[in-house]
Write a structure and sequence with these properties.
The protein is about 25% helix and about 30% strand. By secondary structure, it is an alpha+beta fold. The protein has helices spanning about 35-45, 65-75, 85, 95-105, and strands at about 5-10, 50-55, 60-65, 110-115, 115-125, 130-140. Strands 1-4-5-6-2-3 form a six-stranded antiparallel beta sheet.
Length: about 140
C-alpha cells in the first residue's frame, strides 16, 4: 500500500450565493431540463474518465463506479472497505475532505499529491451520513 498522501490542497471554496436553478428566460429554449440533468447525472456516474465513490461517516465505501474499481483495485469490488484503503492508502487523510463535506454539508474540492500521481477531487454531500467523491487521476510523467 502507499503511504498517506503528503499534501492536501483545497483549491477553491464553494461559491457564495450560488443559484441552483439557472434557467433560460421564458420562451428562449424549449427543452426538458430535468431529463437532460438526469442523463447528465447518469453519464457522469458511469463515465470512463471519472472515478466516483460514495462514503459514509464511518469511512466505508457504500458504492463506487466501474472506473474507480479499475483505477484502484484491478476491477475488484471495494464496497464496505474503508475509503482510504480502497484508494490504496494506509491511513485516513489528514483533514479528510469527504468527512469535511459530510460534517459541514458543503461541497469542497482540491487535489491530493502523492509520489507518483496527482488527483483532482470534488466532494459532494448527499445527506447527513454520506458524501460522494468524484475525481480524475493524473499520473506523473516519469523522466
Amino acid at each position: 500500500m502507499n503511504k498517506s498522501p503528503s499534501v492536501v490542497k483545497v483549491l477553491y471554496p464553494p461559491v457564495a450565493n450560488r443559484r441552483d436553478d439557472v434557467s433560460p428566460r421564458e420562451g428562449t429554449l424549449k427543452v426538458n431540463v430535468e431529463v437532460l440533468q438526469e442523463k447528465l447525472g447518469k453519464g457522469l456516474v458511469n463515465s470512463p474518465f471519472l472515478s466516483v465513490m460514495i462514503v459514509n461517516r464511518k469511512y466505508q465505501v457504500v458504492w463506487h463506479n466501474q472506473r474507480f474499481a479499475e483505477e484502484f483495485n484491478h476491477g475488484a469490488d471495494r464496497t464496505g472497505v474503508p475509503c482510504f484503503q480502497a484508494a490504496g492508502f494506509d491511513k485516513i487523510h489528514a483533514d479528510c475532505p469527504l468527512q469535511k463535506s459530510i460534517k459541514e454539508s458543503e461541497p469542497n474540492m482540491g487535489n491530493i499529491e502523492s509520489e507518483d500521481s496527482t488527483f483532482f477531487y470534488m466532494c459532494i454531500p448527499l445527506d447527513a451520513e454520506h458524501a460522494a467523491k468524484v475525481y480524475v487521476f493524473l499520473p506523473r510523467k516519469k523522466s
